[in-house]
Amino acid sequence: MAPVEQFWNFIWLFFWSFAFIAYLFALFAVITDIFRDHELSGWLKAVWVIFLIFVPFLTVLVYLIARGRSMAERQARSAQQAEAATTEYIRSVATASPSQEIAKAKELLDAGTLTQSEFDAVKAKALSRA
Q1: Exposed end of the chain (fewer CB within 10 Å): N or C?
Q2: How many CA atoms lie within 13 A of 71 on its CB side?
Q3: Residue 21: is its pLDDT beyond 90?
Q4: Rounded CA separation 126/65 (Å)
Q5: Residue 85 — pLDDT band, cuts 50, 70, 90?
Q6: Are 6 and 39 in contact (CB under 8 A)?
Q7: What is the pTM of this model?
Q8: SS3 state at 109
Q9: Residue 130's pLDDT band (boundaries 50, 70, 90)?
Q10: DSSP letters along 23-86, please?
Q11: CA 62 to chain CA mean position, Å
């Protein structure tokens, strides 16, 4: 076998491996979207899954053409909900309680880092959040 032929065989193998992995990503994205969609009835979900089992490549292609836009919208909505939940969790964990803020400000006041007016402003802000 000539080195050039081995090279093209490698390129061909690389191409088909990439195509297969891309197909698997699309297949799992479609399966995830089928079960994420609350508008589809259970029967329609079952029909899509049956077609995915018996005619997988064609079914993925048809699904992406027929429902691709709504699939992207559901994915974006899910990402926004996850981001909002993460942001809310970070805010709930990161912020100190008003008593903790006042105690820290009192320590800074005692150390001379804060003036009395700055301490009063921190205290008022902490109490207004409570």
Answers
A1: N
A2: 18
A3: yes
A4: 54
A5: very high
A6: no
A7: 0.62
A8: helix
A9: low
A10: HHHHHHHHHHHHHH-SSS-HHHHHHHHHHHHHSHHHHHHHHHHHHHHHHHHHHHHHHHHHHHHH
A11: 25
